[in-house]
Amino acid sequence: MRIGLFGGSFDPPHEGHALASHLALTRLRLDRVWWLVSPGNPLKNTSGLPSLAARMAAAREVARDPRIVVTNVEAQIGARYTADTLRFLHRRCPGVRFVWIMGADNLLQFHRWRRWEEILRTTPIAVIDRPGATLRAACAKAALRFPAARLNEQAAPLLASARPPAFVYLHGPRDPSSSTALRRKAGRP
Fold first, then answer.
1. Which of 30, 97, 148, 180 is least surrounded, with the fewest CB atoms within 10 Å of its CB?
2. pTM of the model as a whole
């Protein structure tokens, strides 16, 4: 089983999340993508964050694909950080090939994540191109720290089986939707 893990607050979920998931499913030849709707984000102000149940319900409406599974696994296991979630999943599901999915905009600040190098050393990463981040993502601290880990985009189907550290940039249709912009439009922080 090859499963992509797409984590975030999904506040709110939008078509860009679904588009990125479909791109990953197709190009990485994944069986499933799990949306890991987080209880909160340690790097963001979570005041006014809708309930986990409300965000999960909204995410299910956007996902609309049986291969995309909306989960609250981080809340269930009490994980606050991605590295802890990945450690749990690798132990719990030893036969599964996991791939972490992130937008190129997130790669730019990935070095701020707790134990980000551990994440890179334990789980292959697919970086999905995002408007405004295409050229800057190649200069992200994580990309510069692990230059030999980058696979050619044509090798994307091999990523789930690659030995970490390994990452690939995926280019394809892009959606300009942004949770930050959608919150601002709704008058929320």
1. 148
2. 0.94
